[in-house]
Amino acid sequence: MLDTLSLQVLGCHVRVQCQDAEIRALLVANYGHMQGSRGPATLQYTVARQARSGGFLVSRAGREPLSAADPGKLLFLFEKEMTVELEKLRPDLYFVHAAVLALEHAAVMLVGESGSGKSTTTWALLHHGCRYVSDELGPVDLQTGEVYPYPHALCLKDVPPGPYPLPKNTLYTARTLHIPTAALPSTVGEGPAPLAAIFFLQYRPEAAAPVVEPLSKAEAAARLFANALNPLAHAGHGLDGAIKVSARVASVKLFSADLMATCALVRATLKRLF
Amino acid sequence: MNEPPDHPKRRVDVNVRMVDGEVVVLDRQSDLIHQLNHTASYIWDRCDGQSTVAEIANQLAAAFHVDAHTAVQDVATTIRQLHSLGLLESWSNLPEGP
After folding, report:
1. Which of A82, A132, A182, B94 has the fewest Cβ atoms within 10 angstroms?
2. ipTM here
3. Is the Cβ of A219 closer than 8 Å to some Cβ of chain B?
């Protein structure tokens, strides 16, 4: 008996046939905010149990099934698979590996390598008046300068520091912690919002205090390009898109340190920029 | 590694954009992106295979109001860096750098 989960992501209808209620509950915890089923399904998956190992298989017509040993790996693989396909389905969007927050009517991006603290900083900023948009994907419409929401559950690798405890219904897997959007301390940014600022994030745990440094448009474009996920879908091998985005927004380098102080600095910087 | 050429020439098979007076170079061969500051961008722009290092240094000295010695050192250093990044085309000879 298959239990269907329908997601509406970036204007695409993703349909997932889940072999059992537990698999569905896992995916709902992660993608619950994206539930919806407008139009015919553009992507269809089946997620089933592997008979012997107790792991999972993610299947899509026309390709080899993906094997995941545990729920954490299932979420990781499914996410990777779906986002790659979404990049193909929406080549008009410039996908950036970034966290995105909304403040008033504008969107703010946190860009940085894996492990730079995008999600942790996002989690903390949600306690300081920002709305959640994404902690992983910033798809930008190059024509309008708007960034689209991708509000999966906020995903952390470690328990965050003191003043920002995890909610009770956090989903714990062997590798990651997932905070469902319903448990976030803020609302979720709905619909595209104009991108107004980009913080290029670098975590400096040894620093006494966080620091913000200005960034030229050229450096911002280069850094943005380095974090683009589908540059080849765009003009100039993606370079023009990065330049276009960075030309429109304020960009700074953020060397983060103590989380609370970092949030205060981000808020103060945004106040100064806007 | 060879010394930088006397007539440095920037590679033509890279994607180059000027953003607010700074050059951004996308080198798909090495899968690297580079952002040059204003001085390096000025020098890059003059690496046309025609201008000598001395000529570039003279122009730099006039444009940025620096003395000739500093300009020669800056140009030589920048050209060596552009070379080490694989952004220049050919090599022959150049006076020793600073």
Report:
1. A182
2. 0.86
3. yes
Q: pLDDT higher for A34 or B91?
A: A34
Partners of B22 on chain A (C-beta within 8 Å) are 216-219
Residue B90 near residue B11, CB atoms below 8 Å: no
Residue A54 has pLDDT above 90, yes or no: no
pLDDT band at residue B91 using 50, 70 and 90 as cut-offs: low
d(CA A59, CA A55): 13
Tell me how far apart the alpha carbons of residues B10 and B17 are, in angstroms, rounded to a whole number: 13
By CB neighbour count within 10 A (0-12 exposed, 13-18 middle, 19+ buried), where does A16 fall? buried
Please answer yes or no on whether B19 and A237 come within 8 Å at the CB atom: no
Closest to A127 (Cα-Cα) out of A227, A272, A263, A1: A263
Q: Is B26 in contact with A239 (Cβ distance < 8 A)?
A: yes
Minimum-distance CB partner of B15 among A218, A219, A237: A237
| Residue A240 with chain B: CB contacts under 8 Å | 17
